[in-house]
Amino acid sequence: MDMTPLQLIKNEYPNLPPQLSGLNDLSNNLWWSWHPAARMLFKKLNRQAWKESSHNPVLMLRQVPREVFDSAVQDPQYMRHYNSVLAQFQKDLDPKEGWLSENMMNPNHFPIAYFSAEYGLHHSLPFYAGGLGFLAGDFLKECSDLKVPLVAVGFMYPGGYVHQHIREDGWQEDFGRLLDREAASISKVLDNDGKPIVVKVPLIEPPIYVTVWKIEVGRIPLYLMDTDIENNDLSNRKISEYLYIGDVEQRLRQEIVLGIGGSQVLEALGITHSVLHLNEGHAAFALVERIRDRLQGGMNHEKAFEEVLNTSVFTTHTSVPAGHDVFPFELMEKYFHAYWPALGLDRESFFRLGIHPDWPSSGFNMTAFALRLSGYRNAVSKKHSKVSRQIWQPLWPALPEKLVPLDFVTNGVHVPTWIDPKMLLLFDKYLGPQWLEDHDNPALWELVDDIPDEELWKTHYWLKIKLIDAIRERARKRWAEDRINSSLVLSGGTLLDHSVLTLGFARRFATYKRADLIFHNLERLKKLLNDPWRPIQLIFAGKAHPADDPAKRLLQKVFHAARNPDMGGHIAFVEDYGELMAQYMTHGVDVWLNNPLPPNEACGTSGMKAAFNGIPHLSIWDGWWIEGYNGKNGWAFGKKEIPGDRDEADAEAIYDLLENEIIPLYYAFSGEGIPHAWVKVMKEAIKSAGQKFSALRMVKEYISKFYANALKKP
Description:
Elements: E1 7-9, H1 22-27, H2 36-45, H3 47-52, H4 57-63, H5 66-73, H6 76-92, H7 99-103, E2 112-116, E3 119-122, E4 125-127, H8 131-146, E5 150-155, E6 163-166, E7 172-175, E8 187-190, E9 198-201, E10 208-217, E11 220-226, H9 234-237, H10 248-268, E12 275-279, H11 285-296, H12 301-310, E13 312-315, E14 326-327, H13 329-336, H14 347-352, E15 364-365, H15 366-373, E16 376-379, H16 382-392, E17 407-408, H17 415-418, H18 421-431, H19 453-482, H20 486-494, E18 501-506, H21 522-529, E19 536-541, H22 549-563, E20 571-574, H23 579-588, E21 591-594, H24 606-612, E22 617-620, H25 625-628, E23 634-637, H26 647-666, H27 676-692, H28 695-712
Parallel strand pairs: 2-5, 2-12, 5-11, 12-13, 13-16, 16-17, 18-19, 18-21, 19-20, 21-22, 22-23
Antiparallel strand pairs: 1-8, 3-4, 6-7, 8-10, 9-10, 10-11, 14-15
């Protein structure tokens, strides 16, 4: 079935000569973002322009003068590279059958619809807040690589997520930055008359309208809704302004638009889907819209509910109560009183779909709602499935906890996106040039042992220098452009040292993630930081939610430690953490630190990204690390359950591991300057990540466990 809309308004470049016209299509498809050869095609045009555009080809191509293109056309080497990349691009976008249709699916089936509130694809498209969004982005990229017939739906947030500056008192200052839609790989979807498509969200008053944008993620179309149009009143125009709106009523309206409006958008585009996959509960109203659609088509009530149940997949990503949206019943009645009759339900029967039996008066719980109406349900790690069955067992009161129908697919990361190009070249050399095509094969990763220690160490050290240089440059620019206090520049990382053992802590700041745990015993930490022969240094990055003052106070504590001279300049807090800095950090630190309060870590993927780049994990016994730790690929602590406050015990475990194992191992350099024992741990980190934690393995599991079965349903 043709899923291509009639028309798109794409970015165009008047200076681009016909000989390089392929750069137009290439820049408008995010395929370039996970193919180093494609990125190099833009970089070779003009390295400075590539840097100034923050690695955004759309912005860069708009700024490059005609003579730069003319020079490239006259360069035989550049044109050979250009033709090679374009040939691979066209091959990958070839619509022939892919892995799913070849192995499990009738190619005549309609596509799978994937709904998510956020997508982390590239920093030029800031439609993400953290791990959930990057997981969704990695999922789409891997589906493109596997040629899975999938269409994705989300929001085009012109304000994105919050940006962050740190004030002189260490308090996070939130600010917005509107997306320049003409300087990103995004296109406006038009109707038959060449006008922007406008879709009305049904049965919701006052009426809400959306227009539609499209991002091409390789072969996967991602359609993003935008309420900032003249058809809407001012309040409705702001529904899609920012990711994760704090106001409860506006948040409900946002989720109505995502689920119900998103379903209507697919219908308006002529896209019929076979299976619905919800990435968290934000889009769960898509389930009832699927039911309503079948009832309108003449299907009886029981059959409509059964068919939707049997063809819907729901993935829950959190064990933290605040991570599950719960809306007051009075708000639900305000917006759904005209909707539930269309489902053949009354008020009470509709509300029962969203009630958690243990907290019936708390409100309409979107996770409970999605669990009841989805026949395929999964957590995102083995441990998370156990915790989730405990939380949601009351929905199945007749079943013992171990039989609660909630499976798991442990998250994975998109390898081509998150492995640094220099590391990719190393893998090409020792794992074979076609290794990416088979990188979920565990046997392949045993070849990592063939990489000479010197080559792996030199590659890592180069990436570490690149990270620290990028942090220094960011601090310098902030000082030069905003005239900030010099203490902010120093705490931003200008005193970092390439030769020092470097721990990285970068993630969303939430209190349960305990960013300040390593500061529990300051005197002991100072000795580690300031050891004259074997010092350590810490790099922190992350944002607190604008409404989360406890998390902001936690961040403030970390910042004050970074600016404290007693720490010797060995702590840095990097402002405005996003995808680009995430790339630098997961490529360049020496150890990835992770110490949330268990069992709140549903999975965690940042440590996987680091491990693929040879960075060992130092983590508490929670999330993916329970499945990933093998005793040789990093360090684990906190396995024993501790009642009450466990901060002291966990902090002491970190200090002990640093003092007794990690620091001595790192600084045990040979006469040639290579820490061979450390490199052995690096290789184990790569091997263990490759064997279990790729998005290739993850997507294949979703297909075999859920999609293939759902597609068999009548």
